[in-house]
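#struct-pred
JK: can someone run the complex with cobalt (II) ion? inputs below
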Amino acid sequence: MTEIVTVPTAPFDGQAPGTSGLRKKVRIFQQANYAENFIQSVFDVVKPQPGAALVIGGDGRFHNRTVIQQAIRMAAANGYARVLVGQGGILSTPAASHVIRKYGASGGLILSASHNPGGPDEDFGIKYNIANGGPAPESVTGEILARTREIAFWLTIEAEDIDLDRLGEVTVGDMTVEVLDPVADYADLMEQLFDFDAIRKAVSSGFTMRFDAMSAVTGPYAMEILENRLGFAPGTVVNGTPLEDFGGHHPDPNLIHAKELYDLMMGPDAPDIGAASDGDGDRNLIIGRGRFITPSDSLAMLAANIEIAPAYRGRLSGIARSMPTSAAADRVAEALGIPCFETPTGWKFFGNLLDAGKVTICGEESAGTGSDHVREKDGLWAVLLWLNILAVRDISVDQLARTHWARFGRNYYARHDYEAVDSAAAATLMDELKARLPTLAGKMFGSLTVSRADSFSYTDPVDHSVSENQGVRVLFEDGSRVVFRLSGTGTQGATLRVYLERYEPATGAIDAETGVMLEPQIAAAHEIAGIAHHTGRSAPDVVT
Ligand code: VG1
Ligand code: CO
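RT: done, structure tokens with the ligand placed:
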């Protein structure tokens, strides 16, 4: 038996897992005991059973390897029989979810701060996923937080760092560590889900794309799948090498941070489709030639066409979307006669619905789409589903969008982010807004009359757990709405997210400018929440 070393420690404040794990500045994570306290708290709560396997992988950002080596020693001391780790410490979030499921691991540690920037002065994060491959539900993260507040020691063993770059098995203490190819299992899964032959045929007939991996984790996955297996021309994948600081950029696939891709797609040299993914590979951006597809629309369009893909034929059981995501998907569900679920923000709320077979596809307005193939959102999966649909239907992204709107109508949609707002000011804004809720119905803001206003609360239809306070909704009589939430992933001050939506039926103006269409909702949002008064800002930092 290897000797277990007990290291005394004291709790840190603020180790609450947010929307998607614990995210802080790297400098905070570098403090002695900081990551260890959190990891030990996870192990204390999940109590690995004899024989249990743990998956460890990250998005390759700065500090990834350090934490992985420590987590391996701690896993050995805490009784895990086996650790599966991606080569180089790399596993995209959806690939980690797949590895947990495929190898029957009891859970996994995913080291990522996702779309947040990386590097010594930027962000790091740790998230625990459970045996179904999905993010730990609130019941588990709540216990982890409670544990971080009383932790007194963590466990490790004396052992050298392992060679994370060499594939194969090594022993650490009494535990086996397998370094596995991070791409192979995932790429095989994608090949089972989609009609690769149909996509290859389109490619050989001249269908072109650009995929921007944003110097983040999807580079190696996209190279293997898009260029090697599907035959897209070399150079299709750009920024394909994962960098510890993402080349100094935000690996956030939106119109601000993927502007170069957007400009290409709006210009004369645009390929047929442009796509991008984020730091940990779970988000996706889809832009056709001259046509940006909002993530909310993407969910609806993919849901309406998903049965084209071989693995989904005849088995679309239901759709789920997060509350701030537009209701475009609801209209598809209604037309197809299947249920549509509205959950709080964060992928952890989809897990039960997917496990119970109630839904096949889910999505969020924040560029996340996924299905029951894993229990995370999945950037490349969404891109491949788009490719599969376009190849089989033989139409362009723009044509698909127009056909969709002509049938279902169009939900104009935008999200306005006010970043790094003073935390106290943001809290006051939300408190005052909530206090006003009972008085809003019937009030007019410009041309809009409030029909209903509430703070969103969700009861999980499977385990009946209740999650309150998940964002403020103000619904107007014409069917449009604004939603207000504070971000749970930021690491600096508070980020206020304002979500704006307006529906136009198929017979209405379905080819107008989003910004113009949403002007009344934007003005109403400012007035209702006193955004300028509380934040000192008259315009958002990021519009997506
Ligand atoms: C944001 C998004 C949410 C997403 C979460 C994690 O959370 O709004 O939809 O699930 O990020 O995505 P928040 O609390 O900041 O609004 V990722 O790709 O950062 O893991
Ligand atoms: Co992400």
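RT: quick notes.
The mean pLDDT is 97.
The chain is about 35% helix and 25% strand.
JK: thanks, will look after standup
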